[in-house]
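Backbones bend. To wit:
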Amino acid sequence: MKLLLRIGGSIFVCLVLLLLASRVFGFEPKDCSPFNRSLSCKLPGLWLKGEFVTTPVTDWSFTDKIQQIKIQTRTPYLLPLSVTIWCAVYNNNLYVTSNPGKLWNEDIMRDPHVRLKIGNQVFDRTLAIVNDPAEKASVLEVKGKKYPEWKVPPVSNATVFRVMPE
């Protein structure tokens, strides 16, 4: 019985130390080309680290020069999930889009509070799903111009999220 408690206690301590190390070092997703299909580029990360920005952003057009951003969602199993994604700006609002079935998409539907990392700046924000077909089409068109290699999906197949002002 004592041996079993020692083994269980050791495993528990190791898991706590691993979780603490993960929190300290973040383990962000790797920066890869969106068309890189290697396993290391497909793996999600955990916590995003950077310089926190708490001031409101009224014009997100500075992201037009940035090809990729990172998004961290809240998962049901209490660990964050972070992935590298593309973004678009329409009417000075920042948007992210997703295809159905992505884990981070499901996380946002359940809890819209996210953390965005743009460059080295980190923003805690809330996302809102866009249901207006005209707004969705405009966002997809802008994103298609920013990323000409991206195949723009039909409006009915795309999930579009707007970053809400704080």
Q: What stands out?
A: The CA atoms of residues 51 and 121 lie 5 Å apart. The chain has a mean pLDDT of 86. DSSP finds four helices and eight strands in the chain.
